[in-house]
Structures are given as structure tokens and as C-alpha cells.
């Protein structure tokens, strides 16, 4: 698109006056700024999945994918730390978690104050001692750094958000997947009506009040002691608190190993920290690596969870359990009118070909990797090639498939590679993309 704009400008330059030239140049610059620099963050960023096959990130004008490689923004090497901190800050705005955000003086936008943990370890060298520094891009917001360090060590190595590591990349990807900005901010959505904006704002307010939470890292014994002291303070000598954790009644000197994880049901090891979810109640606890979404089983990024019907959800899958999500634009659907096809939901205007974006209502389409593709695009980009005539096989015609080879199911194409006998309905012998009617024909061709 940018190349086209520059081409049109160059062609028209020769016949333009100076004033017209300046005006047209200004228009082109503004369009380029909007489309390439302002319209999307990370324009031109390389794809970590496709590598050199992608020309660089270019956001589709209504899908949440790259126009070049069809991968999501989270698959590209986009610097998103400030944008993600704004997104999470907005999520925590008007909730009990405002201590985790700070509003900037210049624009009043809430920013997520994620806890960054820096550990320094002395490493002996030949002549002196050097310092090895490890920076965690996020750590549990607890005062006891030893507890935070224990928590990190209990996570899988590949999911520990150490700066510059695979774990940091994993956290970044999960922030994008689990907490899409377009699930909480109407301004990040494509052409919502005033009524849809109102419905979305009500929906966001509801889940902030009823489901949103942040995990709390504590030692099980400390939680029970605090709960017992609180109950004794409230009730005098009339009673004691219920045991904390999924467990039987134990003596006062019970150990952490007697608590069991709400997800895996295995006992906690003595001295290990556990994750609690306030909305679930402090009678439930999880191993750090078990604090995951019940749908996608991914670690809940920064311990941000949504609680519903006895289950932990990430933001995306909680919203999916409440509202249909458009398979085209990835946004939640707040309109009463939408279509369902192939087991998925779609905005009426977004049931389009995944390749060319033409509307598919009333048209023939083929599903390719769970995405609808119009017939012309399928034949051009995805159709199997006939071994007989070497042409694309129309999706509506019959074909013969063997291993990775395909033929039109016609006498002209599916025939013996030696004597040209029609093999439809007959036994055949396949050899590297060729088919033979008999051993004799196979020997003749091989010899």
C-alpha cells in the first residue's frame, strides 16, 4: 500500500504545480504516517515464527494479524513494554488493585507498576569476584524477596521472565494473548456502535467487580495463623477458624506439607510458597506452576486471574465463556446479529475470505487451517496439484489422494504412468508420484 502511494505521487508529480505538489506530498506523508507509523505499533518488526519469510509486521486494517505473514502481533519482535503497562494499568483502574498502578502527571493514563526483581550473585573468578546480575521483568509484589525468589524457582525454567530469555518472551506473548486490549477498551475495537460501546463498558465493569483478581504469594502456615488470629479476635474464645487449604483437621503445629494444591491435588512441600486467589477464598491454594487457566492451561501472566464457577481463567477465556468472539477480528461480539459457521462466531461483516477479505455470505468457501477461504483464492493459493495434468484441483470436483499425491478422478488424469490405462476403481501400484496398473508396467518404466 505504501509503495502504491509513493508510485502515484511520483507519476503525478510531473504535471503538478508547486502548490499542488506540496499539498499532495503532505497528503502522502500523512497517509504513510497513519498507515505505517501511527496506525500500528511495531511496524516492520520481524516475525519470530516465520523468520525471513515475513517482510515485517504490518497490521491488517481490522484483523489483529500481520498482513504479510498472517501471524499475530505477539509473534513479532515488537517492543511493547510501555503499551502493555498501559493496558494492564487500565485493567486495574477502578478496582481494588489501584496500588499496582500509577497515573502519569502529563496525561493521567494509569500505568502498571510491575514489580521488577534484580538479583546479584557473587561469582568467583581467577583473580577476583565478579557479580552476576539476573533481572526478572516481573516478580510477585511481595516484601519478602526470598519468597519471590522461591516462587520464581518453582516455575518451569522456560517460563521464568528473566530479561532477554525465552521466559521473558513467553510472558510478553501471554500478556498479548491472555489480556487483549480489545477485551476491555472500546477504543481498541473496530467500528463499534454507541450501543455496543455502552454494552462493552457495562461488561468490563461487571467482570472487574465480580471476577478479576491478582494472585497472592504466601507461606501456607502464615495464612492460617493470620486467619486464626483474626477469628479469635472476632469471636473471643467461642471458636477457631477453619483450616486453610484442602486438608483434614490438623494439630496447631501442622506443616505446609499437609496442604494440597487445588489443581493437582498433590501436597505442598514444607517451606514452599503457595499462590492464593482472594476471590476463590483462602481455603484454596496452588503450586506456583499450577496457577494456570482452566481452558488453555497456560501460566496466568503476572498472576492476573478471573474466577468463575470454581475455576481460574485467563482474561481471554473468561470473556469467551461470557460472550461470543468473532473469529475474524478477534473481538467480543456485543451485537444481537452475528453469524455462526464452522463452529465459530463472526460479525456479519467479518465472515470474509482469510486471503483476500471478500465477503463470503452466499459464496462457496473452503476451510484452510480453520480459516474460510473463497474458491478463487483456494484454487490459486491452497489447492492440491494433480500429478496427471499438473493443474490445480477444484475443491468441488472429485479427486484421488494417496500419501501426499493427488489426481483428478478422471480417465484423463488417473491412469497408468506406463500404458495410460484408466485406474479409477482399479488396483494400482504407486511409486514416487507415479501409478502403475501392473508389475510389468512398473518394470518397463523403471528399466
TrEMBL record:
The keyword Glycosyltransferase does not apply. Residues 1-19 form the signal peptide. Pfam families: LIM (PF00412), PET (PF06297). PROSITE patterns: LIM_DOMAIN_1, LIM_DOMAIN_2, PET. SUPFAM superfamilies: Glucocorticoid receptor-like (DNA-binding domain). Its main location: other. InterPro entries: LIM1_Testin (IPR034958), LIM2_Testin (IPR034959), LIM3_Testin (IPR034960), PET_domain (IPR010442), PET_testin (IPR033724), Pk/Esn/Tes (IPR047120), Znf_LIM (IPR001781). This is Testin. It comes from Falco tinnunculus.
